[in-house]
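Q: what does this look like with 2-acetamido-2-deoxy-beta-D-glucopyranose bound?
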Amino acid sequence: MDEQYDVIVLGTGLTECVLSGLLSVEGKKVLHMDQNDYYGGASASLNLTQLFRKFRGEEKAPEALGRDRDWNVDLIPKFMMANGELVKILTHTNVTRYLEFKQISGSFVYRDGKVSKVPSTEKEALTSPLVGLFEKRRLKKFLEFIRNYKPEAPVESPDLDLPNVPMSQVYKYFGLEEGTQDFVGHALALYLNDDYLEQPAIQTHKRIMLYTTSMARYGKSPYIYPLYGLGELPQGFARLSAIHGGTYMLDKKIDEVVYDESGKFVGVRSGDETVHAKVVIGDPSYFTNKVKKVGRVIRAICLLRHPIPNTDDVDSVQIVIPQNQVKRKHDIYVACVSASHNVCASDYFLAIVSTIAETDNPQEEIRPGLELLGEIEEQFVYVSDMQTPVEDGTKDNVFISKTYDATSHFASVCDDVKDIYKRVTGEDLVLKQRPTQEEEQEAMANA
Ligand SMILES: *[C@@H]1O[C@H](CO)[C@@H](O)[C@H](O)[C@H]1NC(C)=O
Ligand SMILES: *[C@@H]1O[C@H](CO)[C@@H](O)[C@H](O)[C@H]1NC(C)=O
């Protein structure tokens, strides 16, 4: 019989790599395989050759775009919240040591045909062109309340009992206009649609606090981004796994996932070789008969020669177009990075417009986002299915991740990591907050 592994992981997307890193650290014997010859799967960052090969077949990249190695184009646009869960996982595992981060320079929102900075503090609320004179004071009072809210303290009105009232009631209490609700819910709390209005307000409070505390960390936006693109994240975790004994194989043909008579996972066959393990973790593309489609996302990768108009010429930005503003059910996101993040040739900007498709003509649905970009040099549009596992893996030892959704940051990816971790190990993932490097040095100096 072949060598036994504890876990086989199929696909090198971020979810899979975080899990193989965490499990390797805990001493599990991990074999990690990918059919692609690059890391990252659906969440890879591609160089020019790979980008054109994926979207244009035989067509070669124009000379004007410059050198292959200058380009790292993300397939899935997402930014990291400076105080978010992914940053906690990165520091917990020390993977931060292999990466360098840069902040995203702006956070904007669309209202009544214009884009403006997202006001996140009371002071900004008072100067924001987004809201009218009287609304400014109401917004200021609302933000003040959010900042000072303590779950254990008594509240001044039953309307503000956040765990037990829907968010719509809190908006009503402060008298916030619908347009203001749009940017609070979609640009601060980063909800994709309006379902949150009827859910407990405490969830919205948590999300606004994540935004404002992340914002307070670096100042210009709550977001950070790894130099050389998001594809660096899975590679960082792959390195962690390798350091702890994990085995990685790229460009490996996966011919069959093998099960016993009772349908339990046995191993993976590649050619005439089968490797065995107790469990398998993988992305939906390896388990097409065990996943179901839950929707479609459209993304347009756009190469620009200029910053996005009306964003103060920043080198990077996120713009949220709240669904109500364009009469949709889901928000449209625009994420832009540039040469200062080592993801494209100098003088270029990379903007990705994305949303959840609601019609048979998704290209038309992202038009409000594309219209914000000005002239577009090259455009690569793709629509992909969002898939989710049909079962939780307890019966067959097959643990499948969800496809990356349309949200603009990594919260849902981290939720999936934690969820799979718990199903595989039977235990909650506990992230210890590690001391920062400065604190470590201080402790050493005092020792
Ligand atoms: C770009 O990708 C191609 C195909 O995977 C690879 O052969 C090439 O080495 C890459 N170029 C650079 C500069 O990394
Ligand atoms: C991270 O680094 C700290 C300090 O050097 C070390 O104690 C810890 O074991 C490391 N964690 C991992 C997961 O490698």
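The radius of gyration is 23 Å. The chain has a mean pLDDT of 93.
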